[in-house]
Amino acid sequence: MAYALVLKSAVLLQQGHLAQAYPLLRRSQQLADSLHLDISGRPGEFMLDEAWARYYVARQQYTPAEAHWRTALQKAAASNLNMLRPKLLQELIRFYDARRQPEQAQQYTRVYLALTDSLVRSQGRFYVAQYEGERLEQAQSTQITRLQQAQAVQDLRLRHRNLLPGGAAGALVLLAGLGGVLYWQLRLNRRTLAQLRATQQQLVAAEKWAFVGEVSAGIAHELQNPLHFMKRFADVSTTMLERMDQHAPAGLEYDIMAGLKQNLQEISQHGTRASSIIRDMLAHSRAGTGPRHPTDLNALVTEQAHLAYQGLQAQHPGFQATLTLDLAPELPLLEVAPQDMGRALLNLLINAFYAVQQRANTTESGYTPQVEVRTRQVGDAIEIRVRDNGLGMSEEVQQQIFQPFFTTKPAGEGTGLGLSLSHDIIQKGHGGQLQVQSQPGEFTEFVMTLGA
């Protein structure tokens, strides 16, 4: 009866009949308390706390609603209901996102991502075990069939000795043909299973990143407005102080005004960097979502290389470097998202030119900044290498270089999301590989492999 009351109250809540749903929820709570009903029983899932949470949200009583959402999640975890926990985590994330509580939303987002990864790995192991069992059963059935056929051939040989040569040859041909068919079928099954696994992983990753993108977009939108006003007021205040400089008194008051001006400039600079981080977060959530069509990678590499070089020269007038493009002729067109792939290449090239520019600033005698980009076709894959003779990276830095928000640049010069975004576009968005090789003080080379 308690299960039916909860289901009926859920329908009434969806229709907006809060007054009619409340007595049903009270009666369900009394039955649950008296009978000690668990969240999962023989009739199914007993989602009383979820119904209470939706009731309080509809009444805009968010404190008890939050308590009931958390209680439902705790009960699902205690009962090991792994298929129910992701749903409750998504509801909590949407609840905090709607309440403009980005810290709690991010906390439960991390829990959701860790749980879905664990479920995907468990499901993958189940599929592998299932396939191995089916393959073993198929092998045993094949062996029994072969033994039966061999026995039939032996019986036929004893009954028809005069037809022995022809019958034996026919049986051998039949067995050979059967063995060939079974071998071909086994190879086809293995290839199909591998394709299904890859498709499953891509679908799970796409769903996960779509949800993360939705949450990130909401958080970024809420942060952009206060950042905009903060920068605007800092710029206005700086302008007012500059106008007051003409009539500023000497001594302590002048020092205070100068300190205020410097503080406002730093607020504006950090606000600009925060806006850049938000833009990179949104780009992260959209990685690999652009339309794909056959693309000339040589033309794309050439365009992004010149764009990165010109951008560095605009920031540092007078800087010169040797840009070498070693592009393989007649490179086949590759199905990629040009906008996303161009962003990934541009990030790699910007880092290369930054590295040689930083080494040139050390006033090392005889040093010539060099950046080289090579494209090659290796089997069915296309390989793109971006190499510079800059400062290089240690082994410890190489292990962390693709992690979000990790950067070796000074504070204020980088968000730590450029290489992480390139890594996601190439590997998660296009199924390729991105690796790094480096020697401190000698070189750094990023190797991108696509289409394998």
SSE layout:
Elements: H1 2-14, H2 18-35, E1 40-41, E2 44-45, H3 48-58, H4 62-78, H5 85-98, H6 102-159, H7 164-244, H8 252-285, E3 293-295, H9 297-315, E4 322-326, E5 334-336, H10 338-360, E6 370-378, E7 381-388, H11 395-400, H12 418-429, E8 433-439, E9 443-450
Helix pairs in contact: 1-2, 1-3, 2-3, 3-4, 4-5, 5-6, 6-7, 7-8, 9-10, 10-12
Structural summary, described in words:
The chain is an alpha+beta fold and 452 residues long. It has twelve helices and nine strands. It has helices at residues 2-14, 18-35, 48-58, 62-78, 85-98, 102-159, 164-244, 252-285, 297-315, 338-360, 395-400, 418-429; strands at 40-41, 44-45, 293-295, 322-326, 334-336, 370-378, 381-388, 433-439, 443-450. The protein is flat and about 125 Å long.
Q: Termini distance?
A: 58 Å
Q: What name is given to the CATH topology of one domain?
A: Heat Shock Protein 90
The oligomeric state of the chains shown is single chain
**Major beta sheet summary:** 5 strands, mixed
Q: What is the C-alpha radius of gyration, as a whole number of Å?
A: 33 Å
The largest beta-sheet arranges its strands as 4-6-7-9-8
Q: If you average the pLDDT, what whole number results?
A: 78
Class from secondary-structure proportions: alpha+beta
The CATH architecture name of one domain reads 2-Layer Sandwich
Question: In CATH's first tier, which class of one domain applies?
Answer: Alpha Beta
Question: Judging from the principal axes of the Cα atoms, what is the shape?
Answer: flat
Listing every helix as H and every strand as E from the N terminus to the C terminus, the arrangement reads HHEEHHHHHHEHEEHEEHHEE
- Low-pLDDT sequence parts: none
Quickly count the helices. 12
Per DSSP E runs of 2 or more residues, the count of β-strands stands at: 9
Strand content: 5-15%
